[in-house]
């Protein structure tokens, strides 16, 4: 029996995650039945669950995948850039599934509120984004770009709360075309203010 290449396995896993993201965003966790997951991914139940133990493992992998992508942006450009990316017009976004990401993010928030087992499993994964944000802020402070009168942990919490507020704002379908100045203010709030001579 021929062995399947790692590239093929990785591509299949990506196909499952992309289809599942759309399915979870459209139908929610409970509504994302196995039949709907099969339709969204174009794969059989056996193919899907060969890569993921069960639906919760698939959902966690999807949420973790999104968190890792965000952490990469944070490490390079900061958490405010993640927020700016959410506001970009769909044709300018790096990923065509930003709306699906938003739906998945909201489903993560809902499950965190209602499912203690999920909350415990997610806690292990969610630290990545917080750690990336904290490390970016520490580097910015060392470079003299970040205010030094507020603890980095407080600034991290502040930025994460702003992100959650923006996600809620977008999820409610409220207009976002006036949010850039708000994000400018957020960025200015964490910057070091230099006294003019």
Automatic annotation (TrEMBL):
Residue intervals of the HTH tetR-type domain: 10-70
Gene3D superfamilies registered for this protein in UniProt: Tetracycline Repressor, domain 2 (1.10.357.10)
The yes or no answer to whether the keyword NADP is present is: no
Residue ranges flagged as DNA-binding region = 33-52
Cited InterPro entries: DNA-bd_HTH_TetR-type_CS, Homeodomain-like_sf, HTH_TetR, Tet_transcr_reg_TetR-rel_C_sf
Please name the Pfam families in this protein's record.
Answer: TetR_N (PF00440)
Q: Which UniProt keywords apply?
A: DNA-binding, Transcription, Transcription regulation
Q: What is this protein called?
A: Helix-turn-helix domain-containing protein
Q: Which source organism does the UniProt entry give?
A: Lentzea miocenica
**Taxonomically, what lineage is the organism?**
Bacteria, Bacillati, Actinomycetota, Actinomycetes, Pseudonocardiales
């Amino acid at each position: 029996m021929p062995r399947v290449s790692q590239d093929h396995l990785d591509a299949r896993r990506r196909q499952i995650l992309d289809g599942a993201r759309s399915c979870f965003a459209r139908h929610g966790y409970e509504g994302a039945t196995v039949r709907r997951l099969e339709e969204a991914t174009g794969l059989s139940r056996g193919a899907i669950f060969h890569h993921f133990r069960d639906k919760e493992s698939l959902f966690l992998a999807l949420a973790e995948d999104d968190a890792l992508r965000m952490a990469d942006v944070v490490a390079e450009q900061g958490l405010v850039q993640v927020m700016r990316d959410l506001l970009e017009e769909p044709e300018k976004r790096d990923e065509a599934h930003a709306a699906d990401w938003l739906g998945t993010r909201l489903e993560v928030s809902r499950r965190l509120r209602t499912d203690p087992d999920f909350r415990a499993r997610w806690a292990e994964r969610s630290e990545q984004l917080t750690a990336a944000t904290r490390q970016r802020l520490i580097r910015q402070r060392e470079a003299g770009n970040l205010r030094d009168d507020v603890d980095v942990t407080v600034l991290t919490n502040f930025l994460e709360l702003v992100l959650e507020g923006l996600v809620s704002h977008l999820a409610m379908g409220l207009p976002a075309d006036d949010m850039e100045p708000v994000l400018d203010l957020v960025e200015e709030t964490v910057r070091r203010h230099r006294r003019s001579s």
